[in-house]
Design brief:
single chain, mainly alpha, 3 strands, 45% helix, 11% strand
């Protein structure tokens, strides 16, 4: 494989295995527990904050707000606020967000189909058997 730090379209690329590579922060934001779930939730189309909160089991209001801000700052999620009363805010994936979520969906599918690796049929952790 070619060891050039630039992709074919000449955009700079990182070297994620390097301790000082800024791509690690982006990778961490995307693959965090809540980051993955927020992105997958938005894959079906724009969602309001309350829809995301109800749809992502176990996420707190604080973590949802923090995750959305982080992903918005990364350019992966777009926040659209309409100037109406009461406020109407929707979140949607950007083109980059759709691209990375398309890559995450097979990983999520793999995890869902391989649950028996970590949890037995009786619900006990695999290591406890």
């Amino acid at each position: 494989m070619h060891d050039d730090a630039r992709s074919p379209d000449a955009r700079p690329r990182g070297r994620a295995l390097s301790a000082d590579c800024p791509s690690r922060r982006l990778l961490g934001d995307i693959t965090s527990k809540w980051g993955v779930l927020v992105l997958v939730s938005l894959h079906g189309g724009p969602r309001r904050w309350s829809e995301l909160l109800r749809g992502i089991g176990g996420i707190s209001e604080k973590m949802l707000a923090q995750t959305l801000r982080t992903l918005e700052g990364d350019g992966i999620v777009l926040r659209e606020a309409r100037p109406v009363v009461p406020p109407h805010v929707e979140y949607r994936l950007t083109d980059a967000g759709r691209e990375v979520t398309d890559l995450l969906l097979p990983l999520l599918n793999w995890a869902e189909t391989h649950v028996p690796l970590v949890v037995g049929e009786d619900g006990t952790p695999a290591g406890a058997r």
